[in-house]
Design brief:
The protein has 104 residues and is an all-alpha fold. It has one domain (19-93). The protein is built from 5 helices and no strands. It has helices at residues 19-30, 33-36, 39-53, 62-68, 76-93. The longest helix is centred in the C-terminal third of the chain and has 18 residues, at 76-93.
Length: 104
């Protein structure tokens, strides 16, 4: 076997990083130029890493991300109104084609 070839049987082995390695790597990412400039990006990474390490990924939902990362109040009326505005703005940017039905 060549010096830099990989044993085919070894390809199927997954080595999981330790919690310390994950935290160290996420700290490096958080210190990177792109993340330093974005508080929300940092909060999103911290939230997902924290919940994943706690085996609590079921709690990473749209509501939790909106609340914890974007400081949003997710009242149903707010979501409905915002959804309508987003839909109208998207619809306004799409050329009207009467031969093609728009299904929503």
């Amino acid at each position: 076997m060549a010096a830099n070839s990989v044993d085919p049987a070894a390809r199927d082995i997954e080595i999981e990083p330790s919690v310390q390695q994950i935290r160290a790597h996420s700290a490096k990412i958080l210190a990177s130029e792109m993340f330093v400039r974005s508080d929300r990006l940092c909060r999103f990474l911290q939230l997902t890493v924290k919940r994943t390490l706690a085996a609590d990924t079921a709690q990473i939902s749209e509501y939790i991300v909106g609340r914890d990362v974007f400081d949003r109040d997710h009242r149903p009326a707010t979501i409905t109104a915002l959804g309508c505005l987003v839909f109208m703005s998207i619809r306004a940017s799409i050329p009207y084609n009467p031969t093609r039905a728009l299904s929503v």
